[in-house]
Design goal:
The complex is a heterodimer. By secondary structure, chain A is an alpha/beta fold. Chain A contains 11 helices and 12 strands. By secondary structure, chain B is of the alpha/beta class. The chains are: A alpha/beta, B alpha/beta. Chains A and B meet through strand 1, strand 2, helix 2, helix 4 and helix 10 of A and helix 3, strand 10, helix 11, helix 13 and helix 14 of B.
């Protein structure tokens, strides 16, 4: 049996979070805690931290209503460096803690900071279930394709054949593609960005925060100690004077998906596989190029695009918002069910408790 | 059992109570011998207590039948205890021994403490039910058996070469020492409900109501609550509803008119303290206790839980009570159950997670996080037989040491254990009081026997329940917020919830610096924090009442001390020994960590200490370690409650040793 839940749809992920009073302003400094940042020199996490500290004031939310929850790993130290509420929890469990938090309180902006090991290995179950439930939170998945805090073992996103301390003969696991995984897990918002591109990172963060539901943002993040250069194949892409043949496939909603020098390459339908493939725009014509539709209720094309990411060493990867669709959130629905149940009752909680305890077959002894 | 003891004027003599308690419900009945219009003469016998076991195939509705009989007995005013016993399989192969499900109810005209060691009456719906339960019957027990299923095929499934019913009266009658009533319950049911046009299969499914009707007649149970129940339950399927009601009434009338049953029985209502009562199972009482804790603390209740036997009913029940602001979250796994509860507690809710032993194993790391972050949290373990998957539907007390020590690091948590089904209510409120006051995860240790067993429960007034003060932290102008500052009395830290301006802070699983709560790897700080967390839990003992010791003569040399659901069997065994004229003291622990402050002194007062448990001696190990007392164990791990008669023998032996006498118990009757 199923029932029509008949729910209101909120426009923004932060609609119910108290905002600053008029005239009040915040800067990145307001979001910087007094704790010394202890990542390795050159770690990509610094760039993400700076970007987040710089971006949070743009939300215009009260600082005390922002909560960062993390698991275990290098990136999970993140909450200590932000002057908001924060919990540095246990390995892989941050989405479950954030689910309880977001469900209990509609007035909080909830963020999860996690890594490829934390989110995709030990915490894989919580990640996929958060995504399918669509709890209102933003998950920042720092993907450095390596285990850093435990000093350099391969991770569930490492390319096959990776030689690490635990795999001297090369890793034999096939890696996850986090975007494909999230799309398969019914995610309503999936994006990918890069630590070194602050502008793109910030624009994705803004869209993720505005999305009501679980937003998954995969951030390619360089580990200079144990996996240095993992994203170098992408980082020169699009830069002036570079001629890399278009390693980054930028996804912009409503725009044809073209890339490479002067947009010479485009994504077209592959009639044979039903997926998508790269073709020279000059040969196929711009009309044949797929116009990116992040709002498409059907995730099939988004999934097909996600498959263009290299599973091995990265030479090519789509970057941007793959999917962004409105779907009722778990926490809104949970609160709505409670509100509806409470709407029909009268009397003090104590009186209603007494009525509950005295219900059913009772008898009295005089 | 009735937790509240006898009303003084009723305690000495049941006769004195007769006027005020006797019946007054529906179906008034004359006493002695009476003759019906059809000339059948029926004798009415007085009994002080009866143990009935309904047994049948998993699909025969024995749990419902037992539950209805129990409700009728409760409304009638008997004291009672119940013991449902069912397989873990939802539908084990039909007609086989592993598929047998049973429900035992012990009801009496006086305060009783257990569901009974052995049934006086067995209702067996098929050959397997007969065979599986026969070994538990004492000589002279009554067996009412449905003959319909005694076919060659079903007899073979149950492992019978010969139909035992065909041998009744023979020299080698396997049922010779019992009073056997073979009745075609199914055939009569099908005949009685013919008018509703049901298939034979559907019609025969009402046979459990026929059996219930018959037993209700035999023991003079009021019938109106069962009829009302059936009307409600099958409101949408009138044919099924009418068939069940008809079967129930026909069963009653069959007993009234047949010559097969010449005697019916009367068990008077039990005297009880004034008040309003209801019958309640442990899981329902626990769920109500959690709701009450929410109301009395003003905190929204948040349950994060993953379904597991025998704890799931708490999740089911709480999911019905959204009007109390209760959020229930069915998580993807046990870890997410507790994770979400920790998140909700951090947010300012009363976070709860419910599970059984295997689930606790999975939650252990998260319990440690709640210890480190010092957040209020209730962890409910409805214990079952272990290790591993163990015996999912059977009871055991073998998770005490897991509750005490089952975490990495020095991670003490308070442990509270209810002693009876009704006590699960107040134990839940007590666990919440400790969790909120001391900012700590608390383990509430129930078990399968408490969870599914039931007893009459005196409904408390809401005003009598403790108030729980969350005392959320607020910012103080000009003062830096210290998330790990300590309350002087309780050593609790502030509960600083998100959304409170000026209290922005970070917590986590890494060691906290004293006061400021930032990450600290300082050796001296770690030592201080480990000892402070331990001292905080130890300080809870300051808020506990003295341990009650039941030692009426003050001359006992033997103390029997237990915890949890063994309360009933221990109390019953103690009565037995005392009835034989011997002194023995009893104490029962509700708080397993910390122990009551006077426990050590109490233990030293006695020459011998006996610790009965449904495990291999876990409380005994703790008592020996903590107090250097040479405690003896009485340990049973059968997945079933301790039999009070066996325990009484063990107590008697110990009393004999301590006093240098021979103790002979008068009889093996349950008291």
């Amino acid at each position: 049996m199923s029932v029509d839940l008949n729910l209101p749809t909120y426009r923004s992920g932060t609609d119910l979070v108290p905002s600053l009073d008029e005239g009040e302003t915040q800067t990145g400094k307001d979001f910087t805690s007094d704790q010394e940042v202890r990542w390795c020199p050159g770690c990509g996490d610094y760039a993400v931290l700076k970007a987040v500290q710089g971006f949070l004031p743009d939300l215009g939310l009260r600082r005390e209503n922002i909560v960062f929850i993390s698991g275990i790993g290098c990136s999970s130290r993140f909450p200590y460096y932000l002057d908001t509420f924060g919990v540095h929890s246990i390995h892989g469990r941050a989405p479950s803690i954030a689910t309880g938090l977001a469900t209990a309180r509609e007035d909080l902006s909830v963020w999860v900071v996690t890594g490829d090991g934390d989110a995709l290995s030990i915490g894989g179950n919580h990640l996929i279930h958060a995504l399918r439930r669509n709890v209102n939170m933003t998950i920042l998945l720092f993907n450095n394709r390596i285990y850093g805090l435990t000093k350099g073992q391969y991770s569930p996103t490492s390319e096959t054949g990776k030689v690490t301390k635990s795999t001297p003969a090369g890793s034999i696991d096939h890696p996850f593609n986090p975007v494909s995984l999230a799309l398969g897990a019914e995610a309503s918002f999936v994006a990918r960005t890069i630590d070194s591109d602050r502008k793109h990172l910030t624009s994705v963060l803004a869209a993720a925060a505005a999305h009501r539901g679980t937003s998954l943002v995969e951030i390619y993040q360089n580990c200079p100690i144990f996996n240095d250069g993992a994203f170098d194949g992408l980082k020169t892409s699009g830069q002036q004077g570079s001629d890399d043949g278009g390693a980054i496939i930028p996804l912009v909603h409503g725009e044809p998906i073209v890339f490479g020098t002067d947009g010479a390459k485009g994504l077209i339908r592959d009639a044979v596989t039903g997926g998508v493939k790269v073709a020279p725009v000059a040969d196929v014509g711009l009309d044949a190029v797929i116009v990116h539709d992040a709002h498409n209720p059907d995730p099939t094309t988004a999934f097909a695009i996600s498959r263009l990411t290299d599973a091995g060493v990265l030479h090519q990867s789509p970057i941007g918002i793959f999917r962004q669709v409105a779907r009722p959130t778990y926490d809104d629905q949970a609160r709505d069910q409670i509100a509806k149940a409470q709407g029909g009752v009268s009397g003090s909680p104590e009186d209603r408790l007494a009525a509950l305890l005295n219900a059913g077959d009772t008898w009295s002894v005089a | 059992m009735l937790l509240v003891l006898f009303r003084p004027e009723c305690g000495a003599s049941h006769g004195a109570c007769e006027g005020s308690h006797y019946r007054g419900k529906d179906q008034p009945r004359a006493k002695g011998r009476r003759t019906l219009s059809n000339g059948v003469s029926k004798q009415v016998k007085q009994l002080d207590r009866v143990v009935i076991r309904f047994a049948g195939d998993s699909g025969d509705g024995m749990q419902l039948t037992g539950d209805r009989f129990t409700q009728e007995s409760a409304v009638f005013g008997n004291d009672l205890m119940t013991l449902p016993n069912f397989p873990a399989e939802i539908r084990a192969p039909q007609g086989t021994i592993p598929g047998v499900s049973s429900f035992q109810v012990h009801f009496a005209d006086h305060d009783i403490m257990t569901a009974g060691d052995a049934p006086d009456v067995l209702v067996a719906m098929n050959p397997a039910a007969l065979k599986a339960n026969l070994g538990d019957l004492p000589k002279g027990a009554t067996i009412i058996v449905d003959t319909a299923d005694f076919t060659t095929r079903n007899l073979a499934k149950a492992g019978y070469d010969t139909n035992p019913l065909s041998l009744v009266g023979d020299a080698n009658d396997p049922l010779g020492s019992f009073q056997v009533f073979p009745v075609d319950l199914t055939g009569m049911t099908v005949e009685a409900v013919k008018q509703y046009g049901l298939s034979r299969k559907d019609a025969s499914r009402a046979k459990n109501m026929f059996a219930l009707g018959l037993l209700s007649w035999m023991y003079g149970r009021p019938t109106s609550s069962t009829i009302a129940f059936l009307e409600k339950r099958f409101a949408k399927v009138p044919d099924i509803r009418d068939a069940n009601i008809t079967a129930f009434k026909t069963g009653w009338n069959f007993g009234e008119t047949t010559e097969a049953f010449a005697v019916s029985y009367e068990i008077r209502p039990a005297p009880a303290a004034p008040g309003t009562y209801r019958n309640i199972t442990g899981n329902l009482a626990l769920a109500y206790g959690l709701i009450a804790a929410g109301v009395r603390s003003g905190l929204p209740l948040f349950l994060g839980s993953y379904p597991i036997t025998p704890a799931s009913d708490i999740l089911h029940e709480l999911s019905k009570h959204k009007a109390f602001g209760v959020t229930t979250f069915q998580a993807e796994d046990e870890i997410a159950g507790i994770g979400s509860a920790i998140g909700a507690s951090y947010a300012g809710s009363l976070g709860v997670t419910t599970t059984s032993g295997p689930g606790i194993a999975l939650k252990s790391e998260a319990i440690g996080l709640a210890v480190m972050t010092e957040l209020p949290l209730l962890v409910v373990n409805v214990q079952r037989g272990g290790p591993s998957t163990g015996l999912p539907t059977k009871t055991e007390q073998s998770d005490l040491l897991q509750a005490m020590f089952g975490r990495n690091g020095e991670a003490p948590i308070p442990i509270v254990a209810p002693s009876t089904p009704g006590d699960c209510f107040s134990a839940a409120v007590e666990a919440a009081r400790i969790a909120v006051t001391y900012r700590t995860p608390v383990m509430l240790l129930s078990d399968g026997y408490l969870a599914n067993g039931s007893e009459p429960w005196q409904i408390p007034s809401v005003d009598s329940l403790p108030q729980i003060d969350p005392r959320f932290a607020v910012a103080v102008e000009g003062e830096e917020f210290m998330p790990y500052a300590r309350d002087e009395a309780t050593l609790a830290r502030p509960w600083a919830i998100p959304g409170t301006a000026g209290l922005e802070h970070r917590i986590g699983g890494l060691e906290k610096g004293d006061g400021h709560g930032n990450i600290s790897y300082d050796p001296a700080n770690h030592e201080l924090m480990v000892r402070t967390r331990a001292a905080k839990i130890a300080a809870i003992a300051d808020s506990l009442p003295p341990l009650e010791v039941d030692d009426p003569s003050g001359e006992a040399k033997v103390l029997v001390i237990g915890w949890g659901s063994t309360y009933g069997p221990i109390g019953s065994a103690i009565r037995h020994v005392r009835k034989a004229g011997h002194h023995v003291a009893q104490a029962h622990l509700r708080h397993l960590n910390p122990f009551p402050k006077d426990l050590g002194e109490i233990l030293k007062r006695y020459d011998k200490v006996l610790v009965p448990e449904m495990n291999l001696g876990q409380l005994r190990m703790l008592l020996r370690a903590e107090y250097l007392v040479d405690a003896h164990g009485f340990n049973v791990v059968r997945g079933l409650p301790i039999k009070s008669n066996e325990l009484a023998e063990a107590i008697a032996r110990l009393v004999g040793e301590a006093e240098g006498v021979t103790v002979t118990l008068q009889n093996d009757e349950e008291l």
